[in-house]
Structure formats: C-alpha cells, structure tokens
Design goal:
Blueprint: E1 4-7, E2 10-13, E3 18-24, E4 33-39, E5 46-51, E6 58-60, E7 68-73, E8 78-83, E9 92-99, E10 109-110, E11 114-119
C-alpha cells in the first residue's frame, strides 16, 4: 500500500511558477515509477509527466515539454513537479500517481489532488 499526499498548488499569474510536491508513505517508494496527471473542469484526466524509479528516465506530455520538470528524492519519499511559464490552460487539479512499472503509469495509487489555477 502506498499513500500519496500532494501539496504546493495555488493561484498564480500567467508566466509564473509553482512547485508541486507529492509525499509518499511506505518503505518501497524507490521501487515505484511516479507520475503527475491533471484534470481540468469538464475534461478527462490527462498525463503530464512521469519519472522512473531511479530518476534516470523522464517523460512529458507535449503540452508541458520545456516548461515543466519532474524530479524525485528517494531519500525523502517525494516527487516534485516544477512548473514554469504557466499558462491559463494549465489550470487543473494535479494528481500524483505511483505505479510499479513506468509502462503502466496511471494505474496503481493516486493522491487526492492539488488545485492549480493560472490567471490571465
């Protein structure tokens, strides 16, 4: 069992930055691939970024590539999403996901989400 708690969301102006954190419980955090997803009102949840268990491989949605960076600190059981050059279309609830395999990221365990609102 893995429990995930996201934090760091908030209201920011377009062009600004935020850093989301996802703290995981359990001693096996380092064996899980981690991902960030988001869901805007009236839309389906979509993939944002993922990172392998070692941090050696990262993947991004085209819409955030070059603006967002995913990272992890296995000693702190935490994964981060650094978001720069934010746009109003980035407004959504952001969810953290843990999965044993990077190929199936989006399955496994979910956090409760944190709201990000970008004003124009």
């Amino acid at each position: 069992q893995v429990q995930l708690v996201e934090s760091g969301g908030g209201l920011v102006q377009a062009g600004g930055s935020l850093r989301l954190s996802c703290a995981a419980s359990g001693r096996t955090f380092s064996s899980y691939a981690m991902g960030w997803f988001r869901q805007a009102p009236g839309k389906e949840r979509e993939f944002v970024a993922a990172i392998s268990w070692s941090g050696g491989s990262t993947y991004y949605a085209d819409s955030v590539k070059g603006r967002f960076t995913i990272s992890r600190d296995n000693a702190k059981n935490t994964v981060y999403l650094h978001m720069n050059s934010l746009k109003p279309e980035d407004t959504a609830v952001y969810y953290c996901n843990a999965d044993p395999h990077i190929a199936t990221i989006g399955s496994g365990y979910w956090g409760q989400g944190t709201q990000v609102t970008v004003s124009s």
